[in-house]
Amino acid sequence: MSDDCHSPGRSTSGQSQSLDEFGLIQRFFVDQNSYSNVWPFQGIGDDCAILELGCTRLAVTTDMMALGTHFLEDADPFTVGQKALAVNLSDLAASGATPKAFFLSLSLPAVDVAWLDGFSKGLLKEAATYNCPLRGGDTTKTASVDGKPGKTCFSICAIGEISSGPAMTRAGARAGDDIWVSGTPGDAFACLGEIWKEFTVPSRLLPYFKARMETPTPRVHLGTQIRHYASACCDISDGLVGDLKHILERSNVSAVLFWEDFPRSEQMSLLPELVQQRCILAGGDDYELLFTAPRSVRDSIEEIGKSGGVKVTRIGEILPSGIPLRILTKEEQSLPVMNSFNHFA
Ligand code: ADP
Ligand code: MG
User: Fold this and answer.
1) Residue nearest atom 19 in ligand 1 by C-alpha distance
2) C-alpha 49 – ligand 1 centre gap (Å)
3) How much is the average pLDDT of 133-157?
4) Ligand 2 geometric centre to CA of 330 (Å)
5) Domains of the chain, with CATH numbers?
């Protein structure tokens, strides 16, 4: 059966070939119907949907992952399990939610006991670390393709609670706000870029970068603290500049970033300047929080970072809309605004 049978409303003119990940969501899945008697909701386009259930607000996110697309085929199943949950917890963190439960859907080509043993142990270790129990899911067999086994895919839906006070979304950044980032973005891509042979990394530095790629730290505690101060927030999954663009679009503003102010791990600072730019600006898989906040709360944010043991760094400023996004060096030179990862780009 052709794909078109499953795609009501899709043009048969071949136009669909030019739709990227965000274009296709916008075109096919932004629902214009009106509904009555449903939970009030903040629109599609944020890291989580925020649903209001009486006095309670729930943040809900789901991320689908496949071996071979989001993970190397031969990745250690323990870290695959850990990261599968971590990336969802990172979306909850970007809303400022406290994790409460998750659901796991698995599609397996075959029952590989050793793989499942590692995956489940990693997954449940992450669940225990962040106090987010598994509450259900679904399991199915991946169909084979041309006689070859299909891919292992899994989808996690994580739910968090937002107690009284604001939730964070990607909308809300205002001209004059500072732009902040947690941790040291770029480290994960320093490993992936080396694997893809985009550049080489000295072998003594690889174990650090590999650990950052395989076991990202969802900034759950930081998210719950900064939500009282931040004007907008997202987590960095596809690359810092690309994810910043989501905040800029949703908030209808622009920005300037100051390259020398970006935080760098000791290991990153040993790589050539151009490799640093590629990894930090457009690498992705960081799962750090990128957020904006008024200047008046600088001290509070510094204090939250210090008390939680998470580095937080100011890297730029929000500007009014209509000005192009720029990344400036201290010599006032503009760096290229590199594209980030986009499925179907
Ligand atoms: P993230 O990187 O934080 O997981 P994405 O960039 O994948 O977020 O998604 C952007 C927004 O689009 C989110 O609000 C997400 O819920 C929404 N979205 C993604 N895919 C679909 C889909 N198939 N149907 C409806 N909404 C979607
Ligand atoms: Mg996200």
Assistant:
1) 25
2) 9
3) 92
4) 30
5) 21-162 (3.30.1330.10), 178-328 (3.90.650.10)
Closest ligand 1 atom, CA of 235? 3
Instruction: Pick the closest to residue 279 from 218, 196, 203, 173 (CA basis).
Output: 196
pTM: 0.91
What is the 47 CA–ligand 2 centroid distance (Å)? 4
DSSP code at position 295: G
Closest by Cα among 178, 122, 129 to 319: 178
**What average pLDDT does the segment 280-294 reach?**
97
Q: What is the distance, to the nearest Å, from the Cα of residue 191 to the centroid of all Cα atoms in its chain?
A: 18
Of ligand 1's listed atoms, the one at least distance from the Cα of 234 is: 3
Q: How many angstroms separate the CA atoms of 270 and 265, rounded?
A: 9
Q: What is the pLDDT of residues 163-184, one digit of tens each?
A: 888 999 999 999 999 999 999 9
Nearest protein Cα to ligand 1, atom 16: 44
Ligand 1 environment, Cβ below 6 A: 25, 29, 44-47, 63, 91, 237
Helix (H) or strand (E) holding 244: helix 240-251
- Give me the sign of the Cα torsion angle 110, 115, 116, 117: positive
Quick check: 184 and 290 in contact, CB under 8 A? Answer: no
